[in-house]
Amino acid sequence: MECSEDDVYAIGGGSSEYFLNNVPEQLHATDKVALLIGNLSYQNHPQLKAPMVDVYDLTNLLRQLNFQVVSLLDLTESEMRNAVDEFLLLLHKGVYGLLYYAGHGYENYGNSFMVPVDAPNPYRSANCLCVQSILKLMQEKETGLNVFLLDMCRKRNIHDDSAPNIVLRVTANIVFGYATCQDAEAFELSSSGFTNGVFVKFLKKRLLDDEKITVLLDRVAEDMGQFDATKGKQALEIRSSLSERRALTDPILPGDSVDLAHARSLQWAKVHELPESMCLNFDCGAQIKLGFAAEFSNVLVMYTHIVKKPEDMSFCQAHVTDFSQDLDVDPKEMNRETPEETGIYLLSSNLPQHCLYTRVSSLQKLREELVFTVCLQGSFTAMEDESVHWTKSINIGKPLIARLDLNRAVRRNSCLQTCLLAHSPSHSPLGGRVESFDGQSRCEPAYDSVGGLSSSPGGLSIPIETTDDINELQTVFINSLQLQQQ
């Protein structure tokens, strides 16, 4: 049956006002917050590689979408629970909350479990965090959108017969993007350099698209389906109750609780506060600059640069030493002349040249202020190359995530109550994200490096934060920092 012009006129009420008045309003978030966790250095289970690059790349992309992002590597069970607590504090009505996890994991009876780096072998579900329990707590905040991107295996734990009784509210704002199907593994790819896991390899190409989040993930699934290396082994699975066209690109319009939201944002901003760079003068007449950058919210990069030295000094170099035993500082990777030598591959193209670099990780373990020594080593022509040392003790307080004291005991009102479940032991080999195709995989045959990967560190994105008052900073570094601060 065809409609006549009169019929159309009647439906419209005699004018175009009907159509104008019924255009859907632009959906928006009252805020956007994201918690990204990448576990790779497991104490009792196979090591992983890709979570570090995955978290780094997603951090930079989500920041471009105006998400407040905290990115963390290698968290223990208590540190993960406390990080989730801090994440929940930022959620309120209308907020878009996104949780990304890369690491070992498993799924039982529809519930997904993230495995901390200190999980025993075999681990129990009581040693892990239940994603659905976190979702339940997010729902209580009346969030506008809940997105979970789980880059982990979903194999069944045959030794864990418990079925958690988690009652979720019926809402139309939940999206799960599983890197693999139920009872299947997730893979990361072997390469000569750092590279992504399969999921993020394709996700990062689509994440900035102005599309409904489920449409975006559908396209990622299609892209993954064409990837020969994992075809028939890994396929993206999407579960959603989303009834509106909500997208990660939606604008932010603060709601009624502006003051509360601002206060919470200031609390979250603490984890991005870097120490100010400083100029240090030594008795010999040498002057150095000490600067800082953040590779992740719990990984600090320090660099020392010689500003001036006495004319009669034939050699002059400054390095840092004497760190707290709690921190993960490998002397073999400290005070190297290039970022690549220090292991700072992700920031290598954005750091100043002609410096010594030190990478300090596990900042969440700091219980006291960070105190260390800057040691200046020099030799004078008249002293026949005999080396002389000068030292200065430096206190930079609690940088980055250390300010939130994630090492504290887990709060009684945290996700502990809904995550901890006294179960039978689970068998860890059934529940891990599978390692790279390099012969070390527990479940799959070895493969050579697969194509289509961008493993060049220089092609990666801008750092999270960095100080910028060294005169020899590269122009691209300064421009990147300015973008970050907007």
Q: Considering DSSP H and I runs of 4 or more, what fraction of the residues is helical? A: 10-25%
Spell out the helices and strands N to C. Answer: HHEHEHEEEEHEEHHEHEEEEHEEEHEH
- The fraction of residues in strands falls at 15-25%
Q: In what order do the strands lie side by side in the largest sheet?
A: 2-1-3-7-8-9
Number of strands: 17
What is the approximate shape? elongated
Helical segment tally?
Answer: 11
GO molecular function: cysteine-type endopeptidase activity
Protein name: MALT1 paracaspase
InterPro entries: Caspase-like_dom_sf, Caspase-related_regulators, MALT1_Ig, MALT1_IG-like_dom_sf, Pept_C14_caspase, Pept_C14_p20
Domain Caspase family p20: 30-108
Describe the structure.
By secondary structure, the protein is an alpha+beta fold. 21% of the residues lie in helices and 22% in strands. The protein folds into two domains: 31-271 and 412-455, Rossmann fold (3-Layer(aba) Sandwich), CATH 3.40.50; 274-398 and 463-485, Immunoglobulin-like, CATH 2.60.40. The chain has eleven helices and 17 strands. The strands form four sheets. A six-stranded mixed sheet has the order 2-1-3-7-8-9, sandwiched between helices. Strands 10, 11, 12, 14 and 17 form a five-stranded antiparallel sheet that branches. The longest helix has 15 residues, at 50-64.
